[in-house]
TrEMBL record:
<keyword id="KW-0507">mRNA processing</keyword>
<comment type="subunit">
    <text>Homodimer. Forms a heterotrimer with a catalytic subunit PAN2 to form the poly(A)-nuclease (PAN) deadenylation complex. Interacts (via PAM-2 motif) with poly(A)-binding protein PAB1 (via PABC domain), conferring substrate specificity of the enzyme complex.</text>
</comment>
<dbReference type="GO" id="GO:0031251">
    <property type="term" value="C:PAN complex"/>
</dbReference>
<dbReference type="Pfam" id="PF18101">
    <property type="entry name" value="Pan3_CK"/>
</dbReference>
<keyword id="KW-0067">ATP-binding</keyword>
<protein>
    <recommendedName>
        <fullName>PAN2-PAN3 deadenylation complex subunit PAN3</fullName>
    </recommendedName>
</protein>
<keyword id="KW-0963">Cytoplasm</keyword>
<dbReference type="GO" id="GO:0006397">
    <property type="term" value="P:mRNA processing"/>
</dbReference>
<keyword id="KW-0175">Coiled coil</keyword>
<comment type="function">
    <text>Regulatory subunit of the poly(A)-nuclease (PAN) deadenylation complex, one of two cytoplasmic mRNA deadenylases involved in mRNA turnover. PAN specifically shortens poly(A) tails of RNA and the activity is stimulated by poly(A)-binding protein PAB1. PAN deadenylation is followed by rapid degradation of the shortened mRNA tails by the CCR4-NOT complex. Deadenylated mRNAs are then degraded by two alternative mechanisms, namely exosome-mediated 3'-5' exonucleolytic degradation, or deadenlyation-dependent mRNA decaping and subsequent 5'-3' exonucleolytic degradation by XRN1.</text>
</comment>
<feature type="binding site">
    <location>
        <position position="140"/>
    </location>
    <ligand>
        <name>ATP</name>
    </ligand>
</feature>
<dbReference type="GO" id="GO:0004672">
    <property type="term" value="F:protein kinase activity"/>
</dbReference>
<dbReference type="GO" id="GO:0008143">
    <property type="term" value="F:poly(A) binding"/>
</dbReference>
<dbReference type="GO" id="GO:0005524">
    <property type="term" value="F:ATP binding"/>
</dbReference>
<feature type="region of interest" description="Knob domain">
    <location>
        <begin position="421"/>
        <end position="518"/>
    </location>
</feature>
<dbReference type="InterPro" id="IPR030844">
    <property type="entry name" value="PAN3"/>
</dbReference>
<dbReference type="GO" id="GO:0000932">
    <property type="term" value="C:P-body"/>
</dbReference>
Amino acid sequence: MAEVDTHFYDDSQAHFNGYSTEYTQNMEVPYYTGPSQVYMNEPLDYHLYTPTIPSAFVTSSTANHFVPPSSELRQLLQERSHTIRSVPFPGSNLPEELQGYHTFTPIDNVNGSERKKFFNLNSVVYRAINSTDGVPYVLRRIENFRLMQQAAFNAIEAWSQIRHPNIVPVHEAFTTRSFNDSSLVVVYSYYANAQTLYDAHLKKSPLHNGGRATLGHSQSSVQIPQYGQSVTSPFASSQSMPQLQMGGLPERVLWSYIVQISSAIKRVHEAGLAVRTIDATKILLTGKNRVRIGSCAVWDVLTYDQHLDVVALQHDDLQHFGRLIFALCCNNPQATTNGNFQKSLEIISKTYSHDVKNIALFLISKNHPHKNISTVFEMISGRLLTELDDAFEGMDRLENEMLSELENARLVRLLCKFGFINERPEFARDARWSETGDRYIIKLFRDYVFHQIDERGNPVTNMSHVLTCLNKLDAGTEEKVMLVARDEQSCLVVSYKEIKACVDAAFSDLSRASSTMR
Ligand SMILES: Nc1ncnc2c1ncn2[C@@H]1O[C@H](COP(=O)(O)OP(=O)(O)OP(=O)(O)O)[C@@H](O)[C@H]1O
């Protein structure tokens, strides 16, 4: 890699978010009163799940760069599913239905007094279900926005064409008065339990938080800043400034982020757009070491009438990317501001490889010749293969995990057949149906599988006994099993193969009857 001159960077000009506009409309911000941030968040019912599979039986107990060990992966997915199904407390004062979305749940993780910001604009993020496909989406609402020209939404059209593994897809946008103001709402794909990079890596202590929160609600009105005008850093208060720290992210993880974010920027720049949200608070960690740039397109709508130069904005993207790398390396969002730059550079030189320092300096530099995303890729090319190898290995791991889950479908099918066959009310008085032949064997087998009791007469709820029996039944093994009548006066010795034939025959009878009824 070529050396990058540190003098290209001008620390005095830096501000936390250099996103700036010529949008001149004054925006009155009334106090936002709802919804209450109370969730019905009960702990997961772990007794409903099978216990963590012992490592000897799982595909892998070791972590891949992108895929955690099997047991952790399952827990992670269960937690995501739990989050998706959680509902807000009734009376949250949110619209019941809006533009085809329902069940609004705020996902900003704030206490009641803290105002949320989209940079310096008041913003709230909700999860809501789309009525057409039943899938949850994220709706980012910018408060007090008045759409002056419909053409401002052209950017949404362009962004909705962009599909990239490191970009949160943009779906649609609309304006609404349903929140008792005039709001802009942009709809994105939802990633349950996603964390911002800020929350994951930079928010280390209540001290760090303090500066951010106080600044948020000290403002009574919001103005979209002029282009070239500095946006006040949420970390401006020196009291709340976190300390620069040696060694933020591990270097492997840092490179992974650099590669993924570079790839996302490349796709956006090639589409003739600029990202404009390269910021720790807007990049989401959606899985193990998987990042996605979120909140895209909002700035394009907000600043539509400024006719900004896209090349300059793309240049800003790279500079913000540089600042992000500095922040992650030094564990401090202010690593390049407030006169911290030289100290941060020292930390990076001591803690990370020469290549990290070089790419960070290249990105943050101003007026560097050939500064564009293609040059970034030339500089990081040596890291791409590691990323690719880890991604392929992760894919293999997931395929193997899925293979073991395929078994579940077999067992569920079998259980459904049992459900159809056993104790049908229309045959309740027909002893020939349930007390003779095939059906009687199935009934006794069901008792054998599910209704065992111990020597004290207590029910046995042993899942592994159930799974073992069902697997043998599905395979139709020659192994024999003794089925005892409920009155214990008789018993039958039959093989799983014979029971399987009985289940198939009984189910065929039912299916035939149901098709002749139609
Ligand atoms: N597409 C998404 N899927 C899932 N969660 C999301 C998505 N977009 C945002 N979030 C979550 O919503 C929450 C609020 O997002 P927001 O962008 O307001 O972050 P923030 O950290 O509060 O930043 P800011 O300081 O700008 O308010 C964050 O916890 C974030 O993880």
